[in-house]
Amino acid sequence: MARVRTAVLISGRGSNMAALIAAAKAPDFPAEIALVVSNKADAGGLALAAAAGVATKVVESRPFGKDRAAFEAALHAELEAAGVELVCLAGFMRVLTPWLVARWSGRMLNIHPALLPAFPGLDTHERALDAGVKIHGCTVHLVVPEVDAGPILAQAAVPVLPDDTSDTLSARVLAQEHVIYPAALARLARGLKPACAGPAQALVVPARSTESP
């Protein structure tokens, strides 16, 4: 079975990257994690990817300074050289320019730790707690030039408990990220038309229990 060559972009530990790599080991998974790229040479996820037999590249962003265009041109060149067809952002701490987004339009996914359109941007768990919401969660969406605004592919919800801290809520949400990101990647890789009007038309993956047995 021909599988879609997929790159994962990371900046840190690579938790969601590891979930994607693990899912792609299934023989019927429609995407192959062919490359992991980090903009930081010390990202912990690079070692995890290498240990799993996945090719890795480092395109350091710091030497480019404020020249975002030059950095993205170098990144894009690495993706093209590896024959990448889909890109998954997994803790990639860069806001991408319209230039790069346009070149991967419809073929670049991101995972966000909130139920979009609620709480786009950073510090989502703290903001959810401050707002007093009873339900929180995570979203996989296609990347568009506007931050966290692309068509939604998948969401999972978790309850916000009375004694939650940002750390406990984050851990419960992260467990669901590891479920819905591989599911959304598989859905897109199979060529299904992505949802274009928000969560009502998106793939909603039921939350799994994260309690210890």
UniProtKB/TrEMBL annotation:
Query: Which BP terms from GO are recorded?
Result: 'de novo' IMP biosynthetic process
The entry sums up its family as follows: Belongs to the GART family.
- Gene behind this protein: purN
- Please state what the protein is called: Phosphoribosylglycinamide formyltransferase
Gene3D superfamilies associated with the record = Formyl transferase, N-terminal domain (3.40.50.170)
- Which positions are annotated as binding (6R)-10-formyltetrahydrofolate? 68, 110
Q: Which NCBIfam families match?
A: PurN
Where along the chain is N(1)-(5-phospho-beta-D-ribosyl)glycinamide bound? 14-16
Protein source organism: Blastochloris viridis (Rhodopseudomonas viridis)
Q: What pathway is it annotated to? A: Purine metabolism; IMP biosynthesis via de novo pathway; N(2)-formyl-N(1)-(5-phospho-D-ribosyl)glycinamide from N(1)-(5-phospho-D-ribosyl)glycinamide (10-formyl THF route): step 1/1
Query: Location of site Raises pKa of active site His?
Result: 148
Q: Which UniProt keywords apply?
A: Purine biosynthesis, Transferase
Q: Name one GO molecular function term.
A: phosphoribosylglycinamide formyltransferase activity
Q: What is the active site of this protein?
A: 112 (proton donor)
